[in-house]
Specification:
Mean pLDDT: 93
Strand order of the largest sheet: 14-11-12-13-26-25-24-18-22
Number of helices: 6
Helix content: 10-25%
Largest sheet: 9 strands, antiparallel
Strand content: 35-45%
Length: 373
């Protein structure tokens, strides 16, 4: 194998797929990039057996086609230190390859490409959808924080894609809060769904280019493949049935608070300083035209409260929340005003951007209340 390639292009490709290199590899070969040279196209692959990333770059000159597995850390660090210039990569026939640049060279080992794990693919029954890069990026960003952190609950540690002919809804929940994001620019013929692990979703998010247009997603019962321009991500599908999230979306919350998102977020952050460390409990006291937020940690004899004028229509209400849930949802909504809808102190509250109240709800959050004294 021998080729001439731009050092910056090779580094860009390597960094794109490096996110699939495991921090602790179960197999030594997974610490490597797989390089495959076919004509003037160089494919770079990295995998941890759960997610595989592949990208293609154009080389300046192909002298001899071939493939090899090379140590990811060393070649990436070397490329980071090189200014942009043509470099020549060639195997020596002694399980090593030479990387030559203008004023020097480096010799590194390479490994048998046949030892690299087989790349998963989808079967004949696979379904394909197209979604804009912007919608997929916004959908993952808007929901990933709401997933559970419990690794022993893989379904709740993931994002659910609920696919309909006219829209796709991304859903995430840790059973205390739930967030839904709906994209209406999806092209599909029949209903379907899949569950994507949150770590894989974070990788997908990190490689989406702002210049990308439509992203093709192909999936079957075991594998999900995202095609993003020259880059492909192959993910293992999370198996199981996601809870029916639609049954817990409040429908008749008639007590309505309209308030500045930033003002409410900052007030909750201030009051949360004095909330109990173990529970982060805070209390909302709602009356006509007024919201008071308070917290008390009796163990440390600290307390805080703050009152703010607001638009509130409904019955006087006292309801408790975990402050971190409110902060997370408000921090991830990109709007100036929010609507909070309440039924009573025992039922979940709905949080959504005020501009979407009378239109199709693009993104909203649901948070469960807690009992307060």
């Amino acid at each position: 194998m021998k080729l001439v390639v731009s050092s910056s292009e090779l580094l860009k490709g390597a960094l794109t797929v490096s996110k699939a290199i495991p921090s602790k590899a179960t197999e030594a070969i997974l610490e490597d990039y797989l390089l495959e040279l076919d004509g003037k196209t160089l494919k770079i692959t990295a995998s941890d057996n759960e997610i595989t990333l592949m990208t293609e770059i154009e080389v300046e000159n192909t002298i001899e086609e071939g493939k090899m597995a090379i140590p990811a850390r060393q070649i990436t660090e070397l490329l980071k230190q090189l200014p942009d210039q043509p470099i020549t990569i060639s195997t020596t026939g002694e399980n090593s390859f030479v990387c030559e640049w203008a004023n020097g060279d480096s010799t590194l080992p390479y490994f048998n490409p046949a030892d690299y794990p087989e790349i998963k693919t989808t079967g004949a029954d696979a379904q394909t959808i197209e979604i804009s890069a912007e919608s997929l990026l916004d959908g993952i960003t808007s929901t990933i924080y709401a997933t559970s952190d419990e690794d022993n609950r893989p379904i709740m540690n993931s994002i659910f894609f609920d696919i309909k002919p006219d829209s796709t809804t991304l859903v995430a929940s840790d059973l205390q809060k739930l967030v839904c994001y709906t994209a209406d620019d999806v092209k599909t013929e029949k209903e379907a769904s899949f569950i994507l692990n949150k770590r894989h979703a974070a990788v997908i998010k990190s490689i989406i280019s702002k210049d990308e247009e439509d992203i093709t997603v192909t999936f079957d019962n075991s594998t999900i493949i995202f095609k993003l321009g020259a880059t492909t991500a192959v993910c293992c599908r999370v198996l199981g049935n996601y809870p029916d999230y639609r049954t817990i979306i409040p429908q008749n919350n008639s007590n309505i608070l309209r308030i500045s998102r930033t003002a409410l977020l900052n007030m909750v952050r201030r009051i949360a300083v004095c909330s109990p460390k173990a529970s982060n409990h805070i209390k909302f006291d709602l009356t006509q035209g007024s919201l008071e937020v308070s917290a008390q940690d009796a163990g440390f004899e600290i307390a805080a409260h703050e009152k703010m004028a607001c638009q509130y229509e409904g019955d006087d209400l006292t309801i408790g929340f975990k402050s971190t849930h409110i902060i997370e949802i408000l921090s991830n909504l990109g709007c100036e005003e929010v609507i909070m809808k309440f039924a009573d102190k025992r039922r979940s509250a709905l949080i959504l951007p005020a501009t979407e109240e009378d239109s199709t709800e693009n993104v909203f959050g649901i948070v469960m209340p807690i009992m307060v004294r």
